[in-house]
Amino acid sequence: MDQDERSEQLERLFRQTYRRVMAYCLRRTDESAAHDAVAEAYAVAWRRRRHLPADDEQAVLWLLGIARRVLANQARSRHRWTRLLLRVAQRADPEPAAVHGHDTTDELATALAELPAADRELLRLAYWDDLSRAEIAAVLGISVGAVDTRMHRSRKRLRERLAAANHHQATPKERDHAER
Questions:
Q1: Nearest-CA neighbor of 171 among 113, 101, 74?
Q2: Is 97 within 8 Å of 104 (Cβ atoms)?
Q3: What's residue 1's pLDDT?
Q4: 123-138 residue pLDDT tens
Q5: Cα separation, 127 vs 135, whole angstroms
Q6: CATH number at residue 172
Q7: What range does the domain containing 31 cover?
Q8: CB of 89 closer than 8 Å to CB of 108
Q9: What is the pTM of this model?
Q10: What is the pLDDT of residues 55-90, one digit of tens each?
Q11: Rounded distance, CA 168 to CA 176, Å?
Q12: CA-to-CA distance for 47 and 124, rounded, in angstroms?
C-alpha cells in the first residue's frame, strides 16, 4: 500500500472511528483533556500512517493504542506539573501553607499565573524541566550569571505574590499579629 492509499485509509478511518476514540478518551479523562488527546492521537496516526495496519479492525486497535499512550503522556505531564508546583512552593515559602492550612497547589498556581511570562518560563525550565543553570542559559540564550539574577528575581516575585495571597486569606487577628 503506498502513501496515498494509507492517507485515504486514515481519512476514512478518522470519519469512522472519531466517536469511538473520543468515547475511549472521555472514559479516562475530563472533556478538555479528551479533546486534546484525540487531536494528538490522530496527529500521531497521521505522522505514522506508514505503519497503519491494512485491516480496518486492526487499524482501530492501533488508533486506540496511540490514544492510550497519548493519555499516559498527559497524565505524566499533569504529574510533573503538580510536582513542579510543590517544589516551587517548598523553595519559595513553605510556612504560609503549614501555618494557615491553605491549599498550596491552588495558591501557587495562582501566584505563578500572575508572574510575567519570562518569570514563568524560567521557573518552569528550572523546576518542571529540571534543567541546570547552564542548560537554562543555553535554552534562553543568556549567560549563567543572568540566569542566576533572573532566577533570584523570579523567586522573589513569586514569594511576594504567595505572601500577599496568604496575607489576604489570613483572619484579621492573624494579620494584626503578623504586623506587630
A1: 101
A2: yes
A3: 60
A4: 888 887 788 898 888 8
A5: 12
A6: 1.10.10.10
A7: 3-79
A8: yes
A9: 0.50
A10: 888 888 899 999 999 999 999 998 888 888 887 777
A11: 12
A12: 29
